[in-house]
Structures are given as structure tokens and as C-alpha cells.
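Long-time lurker, first post. I've been practising inverse folding by hand and with some scripts of my own, and I keep getting stuck on stretches where the C-alpha cells seem ambiguous. Below is the full C-alpha cell string for one chain I'm working on. Before anyone asks, I'm not after the true native sequence, just a reasonable design that respects the backbone. If someone could post their per-position residues I'd love to compare against what I wrote down in my notebook.
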């Protein structure tokens, strides 16, 4: 068994896509129009067949209270691993 998909809630899918691709270096895997929003996923360029991160719209009413509660308690929503933190910081 392995993780296939996981989500992060975003307030703007275009802005999130730019951040996850241009800044963090992920690559877009899927972009499927779904009305006002899209099914939008990114993956690691090192593992394009691996876990997909869904850039999930934060439109559901439960999302804001959830995000606020986690932020107030200092609980991260997700985390990423790198081989060399200093190199990533420099990049």
C-alpha cells in the first residue's frame, strides 16, 4: 500500500500552481476543468509517477476554521523532504 494523493487547500489555484512549480520545483501532472475550479495536481520531478499533491480549492465552509485552528496551534498541514536543506534554501 502507498499514498497516491494528498491535498493542500489553496485560496487561488493559479497562484498555488506558480508557487509549487516555479518556487518549489514540482511539476504539474493533471489539470482538469471542473466548473469554477480544476482538478489540479503536482508531483515531484524526481518521481513523476509518485504521490500527487492536489491543489484543492478552499471553498468548502469547513476549510477556513480548520486552517485557522491548525495555524493557531502551530500544527503543520504538510511537510516536504529534501536531501540538502541548505542547497534548497540557497536555490
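-- Answer (accepted) --
I ran through it position by position. Result:
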Amino acid at each position: 500500500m502507498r499514498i497516491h494523493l494528498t491535498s493542500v487547500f489553496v485560496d487561488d489555484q493559479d497562484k498555488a500552481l506558480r508557487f509549487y512549480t516555479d518556487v518549489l520545483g514540482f511539476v504539474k501532472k493533471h489539470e482538469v476543468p471542473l466548473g469554477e475550479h480544476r482538478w489540479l495536481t503536482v508531483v515531484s520531478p524526481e518521481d513523476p509517477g509518485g504521490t500527487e499533491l492536489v491543489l484543492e480549492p478552499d471553498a468548502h465552509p469547513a476549510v477556513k476554521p480548520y486552517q485557522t485552528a491548525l495555524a493557531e496551534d502551530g500544527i503543520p498541514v504538510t511537510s516536504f523532504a529534501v536531501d540538502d536543506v541548505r542547497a534548497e534554501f540557497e536555490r
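A couple of notes from the structure itself: The chain is about 30% helix and 30% strand. Residues 5-90 form a domain with the 2,3-Dihydroxybiphenyl 1,2-Dioxygenase; domain 1 fold (CATH 3.10.180.10). Happy to go over any region you disagree with.
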